[in-house]
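Posted in: Structural Biology > Protein-Ligand Complexes

Title: Requesting predicted complex, F0G in pocket

I'd be grateful if someone could produce the 3D structure tokens for the following input. Sequence and ligand are given below.
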Amino acid sequence: MPSSTHNWNIIMSNANRYTGLVDRYRDRLPVSATTRAISLGEGNTPLIKLENIPRIIGKDVEIYVKYEGLNPTGSFKDRGMTMAVTKAVEEGSKAIICASTGNTSAAAAAYAARAGIKAFVLIPEGKIAMGKMAQAMMYGAITMQIRGNFDDGMRLVKEVADQAPVTIVNSINPYRLQGQKTIAYEIVEALGRAPDYHCLPVGNAGNITAHWMGYTEAVANQPKDQFEQVIYDAETDQFTGPKPAGLPIMVGYQASGAAPFLRGGPVANPETVATAIRIGNPQSFNHAKAVVRDSNGWFDELQDSEILEAQRLLSMYEGVFVEPASAASIGGAIRDIKAGKIAEGSVIVCTVTGNGLKDPDTAIKQCSDAVMLTIDATMNDVKTSILSNM
Ligand code: F0G
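-- Reply #1 --
Done. Output follows.
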């Protein structure tokens, strides 16, 4: 093939190449036309309509899961991290730091690797899922396992950022929420409107806040030249910007052992099998309370057993494998649908925040009853295994 034709093919294929959410939503994010996006092609995740679970629970509802586990590092954190690292690099930062229950550290490490800067991550010793640990190490982050929990790590990160040249990339960095809000843009584009209910797991409470900002901006559908970003103003305890009709009711689910929103304030020793949301002192506590207040939504809690049951249900009946924290959204939604708190006829979106492969240990532990046969390598054994299990 002549080389000119070859080059043309490359140019043609690149014209349609998805290059991540900073490029896609540049006009609604705090970047300029020339800002270099640090991207791994995050966002644009599938919105999967559940086909079997509504039938199993016998309710006439449309439930969709936004499968954030299909982001490049396997969680929704990539949306916020592409923005945070893009801005850190634009501002000349050479190093980023975060405290994490695992997913933020994986995302920080990956985007730092991509940008050629350093990532320092603080994780609670012995309390992060194996996949997340593998990621931080492979992406080359400097990992500090602390003898303490996420809340301890968060406190230390805030203190050290005053004393060392590092940019914090936890969700207290406002660019994180700017990136994460794009999930709501995608949902509104896919459905042609916002859902009636949006359910999601809540830990540090940045994501529920970002969803609300994104929904408000997407539903308000402001003209490009008058676009106003929606942010939470701590002084007035209000969200700025337009107040359109047609926003979803926001529902946040927590693990019972780590449920500060249900207890009315910080929880000292959070504990849950859903290690991603093992957080007692959420940084976006007031923001998230304002979201639930303004949307007429609610917070609720699930026992670990309910979270694991929902995780298995989603895997076995829909083929969607998510990590335990993510399953809190679907477990909570199912319970509230069954109870009639979420009415029949509703359109519901659940964010499933992280990929099931992040935490293989918890998955395998709860599948002791799975069909796993050890047989001889003979046709007879294979055939018998099939016929006796039809
Ligand atoms: N689901 C997963 C899989 C998470 O990793 C997190 C948070 C959440 C839900 C809750 O989101 O904090 O915005 O309310 N993980 C953080 C981390 C804390 O360090 O990876 P949130």
